[in-house]
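Pair request: fold both.
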Amino acid sequence: MAEPAGRTASTRGVSLPGNAFTVLAERAKLGRAARFCLVGGTGTAINTAVFYVLSRGLGQLLPVSSAKAVGLAVLSNYLPNDRFTFAARRPSFRRLAKFNITSLAGLSVNVTIVWLLVRHGVYFLAANFVGIAVAVVVNCTFSVAWVWRGEA
């Protein structure tokens, strides 16, 4: 349908540059989420290997093994997230502390899910992947909203 004389896309309330900015902002958010998951993938590999060794190799209890594995994965994820995911200029002890607090929430979610699923007959490594998947959502949400709020 043709626009009436004097009416353009920008005069009827739609700003094309604004829409382009919105599209670019949404793509940036998706890119950041993808980078967060990529960094998390390395953490998942570390988590899974340590979890297996501690629980099966050393015979530690599953909740203890899971907590230790998540803790090591968290430490290995901070710097890549700081630089690669959120493009912070330099690391900060304040962000590291916030990231650890946020990750504690993810740890709680992960360990609880692993424990519940294993008690209901799910293979421990499969339960671990489910716990990690849910914890990623928790960690990413808090990382964007709180840890790297000024950077995101």
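--- second member of the pair ---
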Amino acid sequence: MTDRLNDIYPGKLREHYENPRNYRMLEGETGHASAVNPICGDEITVYLRGNREKVSEVTFQGHLCAVSLASASLMSEALLNRTPQEFAIISRDFVAMMSGSDSIALGDLDALRSIRKYRVRIRCALLPWEALREACRALALIGFGQDRCGK
């Protein structure tokens, strides 16, 4: 049983769901948005603080399974102090990786690659990124990337 859990939740993934980073509401955010997975009931709100040049803070909160929680935690660290162009590239590449691309390397986010074997869990890994995309659109209203936050 332990070997199977290690296969599903490798070290970095387990580290982030046992001790999530940036799990909190962000007061004074410049953008936020929520997403829900109606199949499992996961709910997340992503908060961003930024200006036209970069996002200085990414936080989140919600009711999340281990995969969504780890994905949100990893995402919040990967996107810290990034430009609009970097947001768009990382977001696009993450979705491609979760869709099966093996030619993409995303550092710590690669820990979520193991989830692809469990198709229903892919949606869990992508949920924080859906909320991020919507929160980023809110930032576009202040000129952040002019809506380059990913499709």
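Observation on the second member. The chain is about 45% helix and 15% strand.
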